[in-house]
Amino acid sequence: LYQGEELGLPEVTDLPDDVRQDPSFFRANGQDGFRDGCRVPLPWSGDLPPYGFGPGGSWLPQPAGWRRLTVEAQTGDPDSTLELYRTALELRRRLPGLGDGEISWQPAPEGLLAFRRPGVLCTVNTLGRAAELPLPGKPLLSSAPVTIDGASAVVPGDSCTWWAI
């Protein structure tokens, strides 16, 4: 995991030049070195910057809109990115097939990818719309709500689902 990925943090692309810290930004006269945007400190808690980072503030400014992305705001919210990652990591620890074993690509409708590992099937819908597939098993985790109707499942666009098989 890269810093902030588990919170769904976007890259900060509008940092003013006077707050930048990245040496490559200065070596390239501001033409390169936009690494600062992914090094903005994590938001932990609260409604205002520095979002619990510490009493001295942070070395780079945090966007005002990050209050909904704090660890505090996402903890316990089943629809949050943080809880999705926590569940995925817990499942990976619990289910050996997610971390080890052979992988085999499975047939899937156009726009979907499917691969199998011991005890688990992963489907990825790369389409910008929902897609229907035969119900492959019991959903373990999904990045978006899956609809099950009898012997079929509808997976939302741009989503990934892990199935127990």
Automatic annotation (TrEMBL):
SUPFAM superfamilies: (Trans)glycosidases. One of its GO terms (biological process) is oligosaccharide catabolic process. Residues 2-95 form the Glycosyl hydrolase family 13 catalytic domain. InterPro entries: GH (IPR017853), GH13_cat_dom (IPR006047). GO terms for molecular function: alpha-amylase activity. PANTHER family: ALPHA-AMYLASE FAMILY MEMBER, NEUTRAL AND BASIC AMINO ACID TRANSPORT PROTEIN RBAT. This is Alpha-glucosidase. It comes from Streptomyces chattanoogensis.
